[in-house]
Amino acid sequence: MFDYTATYTDQYQITMSQVYFHKGMKNETAIFDYFFRKLPFEGGYTIFAGLEDLLKAIENLRFDQKDLELLEKEGMDQEFLDYLEDFKFSGNIYSAKEGDLIFPNRPVLSVEAPIIEAQLLETLTLNTLNYQSLIATKASRMRLAAGDRKLVDFGLRRAPGTGGYAASRAAVIGGFNSTSNVRSGRDYNIPISGTMAHSFVQRYDEEIDSFRDFAEVRAHDCVLLVDTYDTLKSGVPNAIKVGKEMEERGEKLKGIRLDSGDLAWLAKESRRMLDEAGLDYVKIAASNQIDEEVIKSLLNQNAPIDLFGVGTSLVTGRPDSALDGVYKLSYANEEPRLKLSETVSKINLPGKKQVYRLFNEDGSFYGGEVVALADEDDFDIMVHPSDPKQSRILTEFTKEPLLEKVVENGKRISIPRATDEIAEFSRQQLEKLPKEFKRFDNPHAYKVGLTKKLKELRDSLVHRHKERV
Amino acid sequence: MFDYTATYTDQYQITMSQVYFHKGMKNETAIFDYFFRKLPFEGGYTIFAGLEDLLKAIENLRFDQKDLELLEKEGMDQEFLDYLEDFKFSGNIYSAKEGDLIFPNRPVLSVEAPIIEAQLLETLTLNTLNYQSLIATKASRMRLAAGDRKLVDFGLRRAPGTGGYAASRAAVIGGFNSTSNVRSGRDYNIPISGTMAHSFVQRYDEEIDSFRDFAEVRAHDCVLLVDTYDTLKSGVPNAIKVGKEMEERGEKLKGIRLDSGDLAWLAKESRRMLDEAGLDYVKIAASNQIDEEVIKSLLNQNAPIDLFGVGTSLVTGRPDSALDGVYKLSYANEEPRLKLSETVSKINLPGKKQVYRLFNEDGSFYGGEVVALADEDDFDIMVHPSDPKQSRILTEFTKEPLLEKVVENGKRISIPRATDEIAEFSRQQLEKLPKEFKRFDNPHAYKVGLTKKLKELRDSLVHRHKERV
């Protein structure tokens, strides 16, 4: 993995810290909230991913000698450099569970720490959570489209550099079965799979010889790529020949892969040819520019595809390419803090907060959450963040707090969770979300309301700032 | 940086290698070409970036103990594992110069090595070059739009995970002046810069106090963010006050930053206010959803902006998100190799090749290149890759070979180049490209032709394969 050091951040985090340090604020407690504003892919939810990686990075985050030398060269003073040399995170982190569904404009993760420490985590937090959450969400959409067919991440070659390392992890959290990315499979304990490349077939004068050699050495895991010369005239007939030869040896051809042309038609024709040859157990894999819309279209055409290999659209999260997560100061100098904006929805929520999810009586998600002040113990109404006429009585719902303390005084206190465990949790949560929110076209809008107390606090701070200006 | 090991690859590279190993092909020489098919951003050129990082990674690429344990668990046999334990790249690499302009369907980099070694480099090569070239190209477009105004990479928080590390490097190669990303600045020796965040202003009860503290501690590098409460009523007036106070101390306020609202209008008003206060030396920086189109629009409106801070659109390379680079086998088993395709432009170029750029008499780029067989020493005509009616006599041009040997028998033989040197080379090359190719809308199409010999070789192989099918 990447060897994070504390300079994996924006320069201003360090210069602002220098000011805090020299102005006597270094021990002052601050709270920053990580949240996002817009659901990606015009969808109805986001999958929260990246937390385990983030917490691991924070636990070990230090300025190393190279960092300190650079900062000295950049003109930082010795007293501050001495402070940075001893830097390690000593605060608290409250977070949603990784794999859970998250929604706009409510805290997903909150950092409560000496202001310099909290500030220095900003860029790392955004960098890690924004990307992995985007990719997990993209993967989840493909999972919704693919039903119970297999989904394999083929993205490393088109991934944004080493970002591809974590993309494979996020894909599994969002519902992918496995990855072709061996290194991520190794480090994140993700199932690894793959087929063969055109180059392998090209190496041979005859396609069938390449199939035979592969089937011999990789008999237990043999998926043959059939489109190098001509899918139906050459690739599939040769795969069938080799499949029958494998049967004679008591082995089984696992699958064929289609990687070009009209996948729906080729899959149907290939299926028919395989079945007619008695190879009905041989699976059909498809790749080449796959995304959730292509999967939906192929399955609507009843294409008999058992496995989709997805690359570019998965690891780039296109067309959105980035989740717009931000990290905003909500408490400092012993007071709740606010950033004004012309757009009400861009004004942050001040103070230390908790988020409650609303459940129907049968345990399903109602489709809404309430953001409350952390010390509120009783409220039975939620109000709209900007429309004073909209509110909702909460007595019919069960409420469940979503932010749990995962780091206390710099020490991880939650139990680290494996990737497959997070993926399974995510799957269960998505199941509880009513299907209207999972629709691709104009999904239901999940409600995020505020308690009256929080809204009053925010409005009074807005008023105070506006008066001053 | 990332600790690459040889499992930073797709699973099939290893399984195909296993077949080559057991079928007696491990010492057979193969040639693979890296090239791409489609210019990103509907532009007229691509900037080649990522080579130095790639060569460094290849030089040190090994299977470590964790890799070998995983592969054993995945069922690889001991003999092959023993071979992998000793794996290191021993072949040759021919490459275009990093920072040069590259065009579709001609080799950018060629690997000539024992087939297993060449195969095992595929994913790493694609992963590194595709992303950095995309980002350098995106950066270069912003440079074209921005003229001589400063461009700063603010992208790490929205970058695709650790991909952001190399993105900052690629941005500089494409023409950015500096980055906020301290760690990349440190490792790639890139200028680092930054301003201040809203959180810093929010920390204080009064905006002006935050400005004063920052100006005191960071007097030599003070850019004040003026939109936390109200840009023209509060931010700019407070920045002017602090600027005048700095003057009294013999210091100079460096700049202000606008991060929301109508940037064109706010820049003009801010400029007027600053100038009226005698602070005409104070620069104006702008950020918030900047890309090449926004820069063009702002400058068309004569917005007096001196510096653009660019985040998301730079590091994600949207809307394209990925360069479609591929790595194709062109020689193996002592013969040129081909992959057929229904689309002629997708058929690869067989054999060992060289690429020649055509220059006009005055040293400017003609706007075309010829792909030749490596052992051709004389040709004076180039033909269109698919249209037999199109050809061009080359006698009026000077030709320059573009692929140079950078690795020989596994050893780096070209001198490593620093990021700023590559950036300067790229700038010079772009200057030589006629402006019609640099236009954003419908740029001139750069010609990539073949020598007759290469075309004949390709056509004869196509013919042979089609006959067989």
UniProtKB/TrEMBL annotation, chains A, B:
<feature type="domain" description="Nicotinate phosphoribosyltransferase C-terminal">
    <location>
        <begin position="352"/>
        <end position="457"/>
    </location>
</feature>
<dbReference type="InterPro" id="IPR041619">
    <property type="entry name" value="NAPRTase_C"/>
</dbReference>
<dbReference type="GO" id="GO:0047280">
    <property type="term" value="F:nicotinamide phosphoribosyltransferase activity"/>
</dbReference>
<protein>
    <recommendedName>
        <fullName>Nicotinate phosphoribosyltransferase</fullName>
        <ecNumber>6.3.4.21</ecNumber>
    </recommendedName>
</protein>
<keyword id="KW-0328">Glycosyltransferase</keyword>
<comment type="similarity">
    <text>Belongs to the NAPRTase family.</text>
</comment>
<keyword id="KW-0436">Ligase</keyword>
<keyword id="KW-0662">Pyridine nucleotide biosynthesis</keyword>
<dbReference type="Pfam" id="PF17956">
    <property type="entry name" value="NAPRTase_C"/>
</dbReference>
<comment type="pathway">
    <text>Cofactor biosynthesis; NAD(+) biosynthesis; nicotinate D-ribonucleotide from nicotinate: step 1/1.</text>
</comment>
<dbReference type="Pfam" id="PF17767">
    <property type="entry name" value="NAPRTase_N"/>
</dbReference>
<keyword id="KW-0597">Phosphoprotein</keyword>
<dbReference type="InterPro" id="IPR013785">
    <property type="entry name" value="Aldolase_TIM"/>
</dbReference>
<feature type="domain" description="Nicotinate phosphoribosyltransferase N-terminal">
    <location>
        <begin position="9"/>
        <end position="130"/>
    </location>
</feature>
<comment type="function">
    <text>Catalyzes the first step in the biosynthesis of NAD from nicotinic acid, the ATP-dependent synthesis of beta-nicotinate D-ribonucleotide from nicotinate and 5-phospho-D-ribose 1-phosphate.</text>
</comment>
<dbReference type="GO" id="GO:0004516">
    <property type="term" value="F:nicotinate phosphoribosyltransferase activity"/>
</dbReference>
<feature type="domain" description="Nicotinate/nicotinamide phosphoribosyltransferase">
    <location>
        <begin position="150"/>
        <end position="332"/>
    </location>
</feature>
<dbReference type="GO" id="GO:0034355">
    <property type="term" value="P:NAD+ biosynthetic process via the salvage pathway"/>
</dbReference>
<dbReference type="Pfam" id="PF04095">
    <property type="entry name" value="NAPRTase"/>
</dbReference>
<dbReference type="InterPro" id="IPR007229">
    <property type="entry name" value="Nic_PRibTrfase-Fam"/>
</dbReference>
<dbReference type="InterPro" id="IPR040727">
    <property type="entry name" value="NAPRTase_N"/>
</dbReference>
<dbReference type="InterPro" id="IPR006405">
    <property type="entry name" value="Nic_PRibTrfase_pncB"/>
</dbReference>
<keyword id="KW-0808">Transferase</keyword>
<dbReference type="InterPro" id="IPR036068">
    <property type="entry name" value="Nicotinate_pribotase-like_C"/>
</dbReference>
<dbReference type="GO" id="GO:0005829">
    <property type="term" value="C:cytosol"/>
</dbReference>
<dbReference type="InterPro" id="IPR041525">
    <property type="entry name" value="N/Namide_PRibTrfase"/>
</dbReference>
